[in-house]
Amino acid sequence: MPDDRRRRARAHPGTGVGVLLALVLAAVLLTALPDDDPRPDPGACPARTVTGWSGADGLTGEFARYGDDPGRADDWTGGDGTHSVRLPDGRLLWLFSDTFLGQVHAPPNPAGESHAWRDASAPMVRNSAVVMSADGRLEATLAAPLFPDPAPDRWRWPVAARVEPREPGSAERVVRVLLWVRTAGAAPWIYGVPTATEVATLSLPGLRVESIGTVFDQSLVPDPSRRVLFGTTLVEEDGWTYVYGGDDGQAVARPVSSAYVARVPEGLLADPAAWRYWNGSAWSARDGPRPVLGNERNTGVGSAFSVVPDGQTYVLFTMAAGTEGLSAVTSYWACSPTGPWHGPTRAFTAPLPDTGVAAYNPQVHPRVDGDGGLVLSYDVNWLESLGAAGQAAGRLSANVSLYRPRFVTLRLAAAG
Prior knowledge:
By secondary structure, the chain is mainly beta. It has one domain (about 5-25, about 30-415): 5 Propeller (Tachylectin-2, Chain A). Helix content is about 5%, strand content about 35%. The chain has 3 helices and 24 strands.
């Protein structure tokens, strides 16, 4: 790895599981805004739930193939916080939070086990991006980290992304990536204190970072557990981008986190003046966001969740926080992006490769071919690592297959 890349790829003793915990339009704007969305009755759309699933082994295997490839020493070998965006030329851009680079060695590993492994010098960066060809083959890791740290002891995790016009009405397209900014902190904030939501603009087709700007600053909110970071998932619909976010209630022992939603006219994700937040009854530029889901006890979300439209119904996927531990994925449904949300519905248990490991960060990939179903990824890590950041790197390096996304194809149908 060149020296400048090695300097940026600083080793980090944490687990890379922050995503688990993580979690006034300008007066001169001369563009017509889409119509307001109504608040439909709960019965205005059919209830939806997961009725079956199967392993998407081809996708899971492709990330294993790419991560184990010894041909390069400076590319992706594992990461979490899995998000994707389809580019206009058919390629897929996969975005990751904490990421291992370096090389992977063939088994047996130093402990004599039959797992591929990476040595202790393998660098970890705070984020990365991997490009997949239109036919589904991973091809290249962009220079990592793609989004540099904004300051010492502060970092960026990429979350949801979309392709949109550079500005409303423009024929030129760009990629807009939501970023979570976190700042190093003491317990219980071992995965960082939530600080701000940013938006990065990437050029097309070259994927060069053109700019990064803050759209929602939370640094002055006194209670970090009440700070909201947006971008865990987004929905593109009728000229709007609906951007969902969550708080970090779980970091201070609330069993569940709360979900929030904002919306932005298409082409204006990077403009903080264009963002509107759901305040419980209307979209507002001045009122703070209010939860659309979460009662701080047994109904709510993990700080990383995913929302997808299914016909007239919106379906939200989250780990079954506070009820079934870190293995079951459950869902809620609503007739509007703002709810009211109904559920949780019947959960399904994500396949895990070993005892003592946990699933987290369920993310839907609606533009990935699911063989007629809906593709959902989840990340995997050692349970002990989720509570003890300093122990993780060695365990993950001893078995590289754990710290990579796994995929399932879901079948949705009417809830009984």
